[in-house]
Amino acid sequence: MTDKINCDAHGESEKTYVCTHLLGESTGLGFNRSDPTEDNPFPDAWCDNCELIRGASGGWNEESEKLASISLLCSGCYERARIRNERPTVTFADLANLRWKCSNCDEWHTGPCLDHGYSKPHYWREEYATSSDPGTFLTGDYCAIRGEDFFVRGIIHLPIIGTGESFRWGVWGSLSRENFEKLRTMSEDEAAEVPPMFSWLSTKLPDYPDTLNLKMYAHPQLHNERPHFRLEETDHPLAHEYHHGITPERVRELMCKLLPKVDFGN
Ligand SMILES: [Zn+2]
Ligand SMILES: [Zn+2]
Ligand SMILES: [Zn+2]
Question: Which of 9, 17, 29, 191 pairs with 180 at a CA distance of 20 to 30 A?
C-alpha cells in the first residue's frame, strides 16, 4: 500500500518519511527506525535529537511530530540518508590514527586510505606492450586489444556509512568501440549530455567472489575526471556494498588486505 513518488535522481520510487534533519547532505546524525520488514522495507526514520524529543514526549504525538517536521523522501534518497547518518560501532574518526605504508611513494601516511586502483584491465598481457598493432595499446585511462576489445579506467564509489565519504576502487570496464571512441574524443560539454554507457567490469578485485563481468554503466564526468561506474543492483557483495554502503570497519579491513603495512597507532 506504499505510494510511488518521482525523484529526479532515482526515478519512480517508494514514498518514505524521515525527520527534516535527515534531508540534504547531513551526516552522522543517527538513523532511528523500527526494523524493516518485507511489507515495510522503509520504516519512518528520525535522527538522534528527534529520538531524545520522542523519548521526552512519551512517543510520537502532535507535539513531537511538529518538532521533527516529518518529511517525504524517495526510497533511493532514504537509503542514501541511512548510509550517511547511521552510526557504526567503529566510526570514520576512529580511522584517523591509522598509519600505513604507501605502495606508490613508499612513505608512511596517516588516516584512512580511500583509493585503490589498477593500472591495466584483467585481459591485458605483458607481451602486448611490444605489439606493433596500432589497435593494441594501454594508457593511464584507455586500453584497446587487437582493435576488438576496448576498456576505460573509471571509479566505483562505495559510500562509507556515517559519512559523506566513499572508498574508491579504480577499475577497468569494457566499452563498445563506438562508446570508446566517443569517450576519448568528446568535449567537456558533451560529457554532461551523453547517456551512461554499458560496461562489463574487467578488473578482478581481491576479497570478493569473482568480480569479472559484473554489469555496470560508465557515467562520463566533467573536468576530464574518470567516469564513475554504477553497478547493477544484484546480490553480489560488491554490488551490495555499492548500493548499501560499507562500514568504517570494513574500510580498515580492506586497508589491511590491500596495503603492505598498516599500523593501528596504539
Ligand atoms: Zn531529526
Ligand atoms: Zn531519490
Ligand atoms: Zn604515497
Answer: 9
